[in-house]
Amino acid sequence: MPRARLRTLLRLLAVLAVSALGLEGLIRLVLFVPDWAPEGTGLRRPELYFSGDDPRFWMLRARLNGHHELGPPDDPDPVLGWTSGRFDAETREHMDEARLGDQRPVLLVGDSFAACSGAPDRCYEHLLEEGPFGPTHELLNYGVGGYGTDQALLLSFDLIDRFADRDPVIVLSLLIDDDLDRCTLPYRGAPKPVLEAAGEREVRIARPAAPLDRSAWFAENPLEVPWWSARFLERNLFMDEEAQVEDSGIEARLETMRVAMAAGLLEWKDRLDAHGLDGFVLLFGDRLRHEGVSTKEDRFRWLEAVLEGQQIPWIRAWEELEDDRALFERDLDDYFVTGKVGKGHYTALGNELTHLALERGLRGAFDGPSMVLHESDRQDRIGPGAFVRWERYPYADHGEDDLPHALLRPGDGEEGAAQLAFVPARPVRRFEALVRPVAGFEGAAELVLTTAEGVAHRSVVRSGDPDRLLTIALPEVERLDFEVRSVDGEPSLPFYLVHPALDGHPHGPMLLTQ
Q1: Among the ranges 156-170, 217-231, 282-296, which has the highest mean pLDDT value?
Q2: Which of 34, 87, 115, 165 has the fewest CB atoms within 10 Å, measured from its CB?
Q3: What single string gives the DSSP state of each residue in 125-163?
Q4: Which residues contact residue 371 at a Cβ distance below 8 angstroms, ignoring those fewer than 6 apart?
Q5: What is the sign, positive or negative, of the torsion defined by CA atoms of 184, 186, 192, 197?
């Protein structure tokens, strides 16, 4: 190689080396010398280097916050990491416990959505006191900002033991779009415990929160990144969304989390059953879920399957909000805080609507688990030629035609009505089924659904009609009566109610019948 060309190449390499060192030095100054730039501006943002579900994101965020995340948290707890300051870290005694009197405790455990960070003056304890359960129940709010489902479970274990002789209702709440992911983190604003399965129905602390002093924790768990400039360039120039997910390692940690949380929920259920106590899981949804762009739908479907399969009662807290939104055509800003303080949490109106879901849980009107049809071959003959027959297929093998059916056919004349009563195990607010005329038959049938308040639905089914989804809103009823009648001048048509479901549950539910 000619000497001149070699000198040019060496100069170029020198320029590149100086540029790389300069960029590295600049990024380190910006990141770790607070006077250069405040946290959250320019290059001083943790999301430029790590995904939010990466433990390193929270470690960098702590370093950027400097003295705000040094020393112990404001309300340290040796097991949970921190508390809300509203209950004792050793005894779990709540500051409002003296207000219980003879009332039944409702113990709400969860994160900042339970603690009502967006509207603390219209929180669940106030709303319950004003509602129909106020004279008989008292809510103690054990919600703690930043908690994952792992911390909420550990706290609820202690509360079950503390309040067992007071017949409490234990409400385990979680933000379905974030709280499960928090279980994969050892640090989130402060050191926190990490759980692992100790069997199919038990968990143990795999990594304790201690040391509570955050400076000591970081001394034991240093954030080591050899080249911050390379980290910045790689993440922002060369990683697509899929590569960023792989880089965070979240998928492997989620699998471990699922095993641990399934065992934790079963232990929670077993502890309740051992004391003969009532409890249910309350699921909150974030704004993205209401916008229809949630990225955590797989978390919800997985958790729903665990709760359904293990017969743990649960409530979707976002349905009342969606009903209100459809009725009044409100903007989501009416339900979620947009300002800096409490951003993304429920407003007072959001709290009031999700509290209706909590009340629904206290009434026992759950969204799951499903109710199972026990009498698969029952036949009711009410009038001449009329019949009702259940055809039940295996619950776990739902395919296009592998679904429970109610086959109905009216007889002839006024006395030929076919009748069927649904008596659910708990109050319901919605009935759904696919109406399918039986192929090869001609004629029509009138379908009438009544409740204690009167006729809730009336329609005519005719031969040749396409499948039609029947969705009927109900005023929370304890019994539904179907009557199928003939139509004047037309032959009586048999038809199916395919996969009849209460409250629109995607897996059913099959129905108890009478």
Answers
A1: 156-170
A2: 165
A3: HHHHHHSTTTTTEEEEEEE-TT--HHHHHHHHHHHHHHH
A4: 424, 425, 426, 502, 508, 509, 510, 511, 512
A5: positive
What average pLDDT score do residues 143-154 get? 97
**Which residues have a Cβ under 8 Å from the Cβ of 458 and sit 6 or more positions away?**
446, 447, 448, 449
User: What residue has token string 């077993």?
Assistant: 270
157 and 240 belong to one structural domain: yes
Question: Which tens digit of pLDDT belongs to each residue from 451-461?
Answer: 999 999 999 99
Strands 418-422 and 480-486: antiparallel
At 190, give phi and psi (nearest 5°): -165, 160
What pLDDT is attached to residue 41?
Answer: 60
Q: H-helix or E-strand containing 501?
A: strand 495-502
**Comparing C-alpha atoms, which of 204, 73, 64 is closest to residue 145?**
73
Segments of 35-148 assigned E as strands = 76-77, 81-82, 104-110, 137-143
Rounded Cα–Cα distance for residues 308 and 314 (Å)? 9
138 and 105 in contact (C-beta within 8 Å)? yes
Q: Are 315 and 282 in contact (CB under 8 A)?
A: yes
The model's pTM is 0.77
What's the one-letter identity of residue 259?
A: V
Q: Containing domain of residue 445, as a range?
A: 379-502
Where is 115: in which H helix or E strand?
Answer: helix 112-115
Instruction: Give how far the C-alpha of residue 225 lies from the chain's centroid of Cα atoms, to the nearest Å.
Output: 35
CATH number, domain with residue 426? 2.60.120.1060
Query: Residue 252: in which H helix or E strand, if any?
Result: helix 250-275
| 341 and 440 together in one domain | no
CA distance 151 to 84: 12
Q: Which two tokens stand for residue 384?
A: 């001449």
Higher pLDDT, residue 463 or 20: 463
Kindly give, in sequence order, each residue whose CB lies less than 8 Å from that of residue 364, ignoring residues fewer than 6 positions away: 313, 426, 427
Residue 514 clears pLDDT 70, i.e. is over it: no
Contact 260, 183 (CB under 8 A): yes
Say what the alpha-carbon torsion angle 282, 288, 294, 300 is, to the nearest 10 degrees.
0
CATH number of the domain where residue 302 is located: 3.40.50.1110
Tokens of 368: 């799951």
C-alpha distances (whole Å) from 155 to each of 111, 162, 213, 450, 484 are 11, 11, 21, 45, 52
* The two three-digit tokens of residue 422, written as one number: 């649904």
Render pLDDT for 236-270 as a digit per residue (tens, 0 to 9). 888 888 888 888 888 889 999 999 999 999 999 99
What average pLDDT does the chain have?
83
Residue 374 banded pLDDT, cuts 50, 70, 90 = very low
Residue 19 lies in a domain: no
| φ and ψ of 363, to 5 deg | -80, -15
